[in-house]
Amino acid sequence: MNDDLISLKEFLEEISKKLSSIFTIKDLEEYKLKIFGKKGLITSLLKKIPFIEDKEKRKEYGLKLNKTKLEAANIFKSKEDFLIKSDLHYKLEKETIDITLSTRPSNLGKIHIISHVIETITKYFCSIGFSIAFSSEIEDENHNFTMLNIPYHHPARQLHDTFYLSNGFLLRTHTTPIQVHLLKIVKPPFRILTYGKAYRYDYDSTHTPMFHQLEGIVLDKSSNISNLKGTITDFLNYFFNEKKIEIRFRPSYFPFTEPSAEVDIKFLHNRKEKDSNKKSNSFLEVLGCGMIHPNILKIGNINKDEFQGFAFGIGVERLAMLKYEIPDIRSFYNNDMRWLSHYGLHPLSSIRER
Amino acid sequence: MKFTFSWLKEHIKSDLSLNQILELLVKLGFEVESISDNKEIFDKFLVAEIVGCVPHPNNEELNIYYIDYGSNNLIPSVNKNSNLYLGMKCALGLPGTMIPKTGRIIENKKIDDVYSYGLILSYEDLLLKDRTDILELPETAIIGEKLNNIFDLNDPLITLSVPANRNDCLGIRGIARDLVALGSGTLNDLNYKANSSNFIPSMNIDVYDNSLCPYFIIRVIKNLKNLKSPLWMKNRLELIGIKSVNALVDITNYITIDLCQPLHIFDKNKINGDLKIRLSNQEEFIALNGKKYILDDRSIVLSDTSDQILSLCGIIGGMNSSVSYSTKDIVIESAIFDSFRILNTSRYLNIKTESSIRFEKGIDPESVINGIELATSYILDICGGELSDLIILGKKPTKNVLVPLRQKKLQSISGTDLNLNDGSKLLESLGFKKNYCDYEMTEFLVPSWRFDIEIEEDLIEEILRIKGYDYINELPLFKEKDFNGNDNNKITTSSDFYEIKKPIFILKIPILDIKKLLTFRGLYEVIGWSFVSRKIGNYFNQNKKKEDILKISNPISNEFIIMRPSILASFISIISYNQSYKIKNLNFFEIGFQYEFDNNQRLVIGGFRSGNLDWNWAEKKRYVDIFDVKGDVLEVFNFIGFDLVNKTNLVRNAPDYYHPNKSGSFVYKDKTLAFFGDIHPHIVSEFNLSYPTVAFEIFYDVLEDTITEKYENKEFHISYFPSVIRDFCFTIPKEIPSEDVLKAIKLADTDLITSVKIIDSYNELKNQIGKKSLNFQVTLESCKNTLTEEEINKISKKIIENVFKKSGGILRQM
Lengths: 354, 814
What we know:
The structure holds two protein chains of two kinds.
Chain A: H1 2-19, H2 25-36, H3 41-48, H4 55-94, H5 113-127, E1 131-132, E2 134-135, E3 138-139, H6 141-144, E4 170-171, H7 177-185, E5 190-199, E6 210-220, H8 225-239, E7 245-254, E8 257-267, E9 284-292, H9 294-299, E10 308-315, H10 316-324, H11 331-334, H12 337-343
Parallel strand pairs in A: 1-5
Antiparallel strand pairs in A: 3-4, 5-6, 6-10, 7-8, 8-9, 9-10
Helix pairs in contact in A: 1-4, 5-10
Chain B: E1 2-4, H1 5-9, E2 12-13, H2 18-27, E3 31-36, H3 39-42, E4 46-55, E5 62-68, E6 74-80, E7 89-93, E8 109-111, E9 114-116, E10 119-120, E11 157-161, H4 172-181, E12 186-187, E13 205-207, E14 215-222, H5 231-239, H6 247-259, E15 263-267, E16 275-279, E17 284-286, E18 292-294, E19 300-304, E20 309-312, E21 316-317, E22 330-336, H7 339-349, H8 354-359, H9 366-383, E23 386-394, E24 402-406, H10 407-414, H11 420-429, E25 433-437, E26 441-445, H12 456-467, H13 490-493, E27 504-505, H14 511-520, E28 524-525, E29 531-532, H15 534-539, E30 562-563, H16 571-580, E31 586-595, E32 601-610, H17 626-640, H18 644-647, E33 649-651, E34 658-668, E35 671-679, H19 681-686, E36 693-699, H20 700-706, E37 724-733, H21 738-747, E38 753-762, E39 771-780, H22 789-807, E40 810-811
Parallel strand pairs in B: 13-16, 28-31
Antiparallel strand pairs in B: 1-11, 2-12, 3-11, 4-5, 4-7, 5-6, 7-10, 8-9, 14-22, 14-23, 15-22, 16-19, 17-18, 19-20, 20-21, 24-26, 25-26, 29-30, 31-32, 32-36, 33-34, 34-35, 35-36, 37-39, 37-40, 38-39
């Protein structure tokens, strides 16, 4: 029976040899059937066991054959594992794609910079107690001028500065008429902010016939020029957050405020080269403000010795032009898609102020 | 207001430099609009004299001038025979110097075979004036010196913006007065000689009504000789943009700017007899500017015995009495005219002169005499002549405006500790005088030249102006419970403000969130003009009636004439603009007003899409269509939390700027909430828009109405059993809206049917005219059990039944 034992050893060697030339699971399965199948080699050898007469030898042979069977199964298993693995690998390899290809179009629009600037400003003032209200863009001479203490001979009332409408009304030249409407209805104390379009007969690189104004009105028992200065200074520092600025208050004249001031800012760091020679080193006007004129308070029958307050008006485009270094005001209203895409803001831009 | 630095210095004795003065002017409330300082330019050029002249041998138009520029050299320079004369002092540029105007370098060169050295410069070359003739220097200029040393030339021009209420500062004297109040120097006395008269004029003056002209002074000067103005005066006037005419005219202009006292000079020999100040009476008048004006009966005029109008008082003189070089005898006038009439006349005749802008705001009565005396003294110096006495009509008006100032008010307005004493000192430096004072207030007399001081606050502004705003501390607004955030303030809680037609309104729906939503749907925010052209306006008029359109009476251009009747109207120019740059795929929106004739302005959310959506290798190219904009509308209402599909009617009555059969509108309680659809092909071709073009409009006021609808909070149970999906395909008469069928399906079992969607739609069916086919996918789900085949079949049957009942639709075998 030694021959048999040797043949078992050879048998295993032969399997190994045969397996090394098998490369697919399918061939492996076929071969596996030949060895382990019902008519397979192992089965036929097993069937021989009962015919071994010597009890000892029968036992020994049986043990050895079983061991060989196990060993053969192991060889098959590892070959199978190997084949599955390399098969998957091949499959994965085949699935490789170019990850640098572009994504599907995002189809995301942008918010106009004017809206963004208005949002930035209103957020700030709402956080210090202002509420937002609006009034009409269509006004009459009375509300736009006369009641705002702008007399007939004031240069602002000349026909060529104001757009008059076919129905006898006019397009407001500023947002200030809201003060008249407010005082007729609301009793102080209040802090109110308004914004919207205003219109003037002017069209060049620094003026458009339609523009946006934002106006704040504070009326209570004690707000004075000191508070006005503080409020405006804090606001401007907030608005031009990363850009260091110097702020200057300078006396001015508005018919509806007394005393009146205009506020200039100067950037303390170098701006773009093209205007660095002159403009960046000088003060630039950003807003007008002042204490509400007693004649305006009279509209609401308010005793000027009991209530006082201030108002300020901001040119939204002007502020946007300064902050974002936009040279020509007309570009706000050309609505060039390329411009809108460049200066426009992501809808959720608030976390990263440009 | 324009003036030169040297001119200002005539009035103020000060050591301050130009820059220091400019800084003070800003502190005083004047805006320095521009400042031109030519020092560097003039540094490079020399004074030269023309000492000889011979004609150019080869060119009749040219001369060869011999020039002395102080180096003992005479150099020849070839020049056109213009205003050069022997002995004239001129400016010479040596070879290698750059001409300021052109940037060209001067070089010696041959001109028609004759050498020409250097260049004699014109006004224009030196950026002095818009004149091509050769710059003439004063006789006193020293040959060989730098041009820089001639002060008149190197006189910085200052352009100030004077606040509208400070008419006193339309005279250089007024500006000097303000500067002195800041402690920048002392005011020089007005420098005129006592003018002694030689005769009493034989002229009668009749003033029709004292209110037209409360104060009127004239003087006659005989036997003078009108000449060219001296160079200093000519230069100053021309630098500020007033053309030099002759000495007499120049002197009146000079005094106007100098003292803010407009004057007028008449040629006495052109006046017939006496003078009369009266109102015009439908007369013609030819003014000095050569134009003919038809006067109504409201203007103040000066006429003579023959009733010819000599001048439109306070505005412009007449051609008939104007002075010229041959004028010998003159009448000079200095007066105060009724400012309101001057303003009216100036506006209705549309004449604006240096004189009218000063009279219409009022002038200092004190300067009437000063003006005529100073002018007289210049006339005597330049033109000579014999003086008459002054003839004075009326009385110098005195206003005596008294304004009280309380310390309490000063401190409460300014937020400073300034006391009455500090305030008084500052006011006195400006010429205010204490009239009365007690322990808590002081009453001030306003100086005669100030017309803008009426109330206490005006005084406070003056005090702060001189003290400087830097003196005031910066304090934040006080924090009070009332002002914490904007939700509990009066404005937002009072129901008065909720109606959009009231003068004050608030927006209950956060507009910015809608903007963000639409940008997430791929739309860019634009801001269009509120006004459009007449043509566009008419196309987009929703009310059809022409008279409903709101027009601008004085438009800035024909493109900006109609207040947009629909927000879509202003999109046309945006589309055209971008298309001209080949940008044809447009997706944008705007939230803004549209305007109606009755002043109603409606807030509208408008959107527009054209061309195809952005595409690439991964996303196939697709044209936009009506269902993109319908989706935009639905998303806005989803955001509001309003069930647009079930709470509104979707009808076909969009305005006629939409495609009649590819558009719709959502109607809520008889009000239109939104329009959407294709733009009418007619408009698309008229304005050359690229196809397809779709748009939508949502009306904010109606949108706001919907938020009063109660939002129903339905309970929701998650099912733990598998859902079942079934497809149905129906053949339906074409005219039945798919939504009706969809609703019918849903009604088959409102509990178990959790969703129905249309997964396919065929409009054209073979052999079945008038029919269409719709494929629905229905999802069924129960919270109680896994649906049995029996239950499913029962619902399916009901669905088929419902669809048939509602639409006559029949299930097709798939």
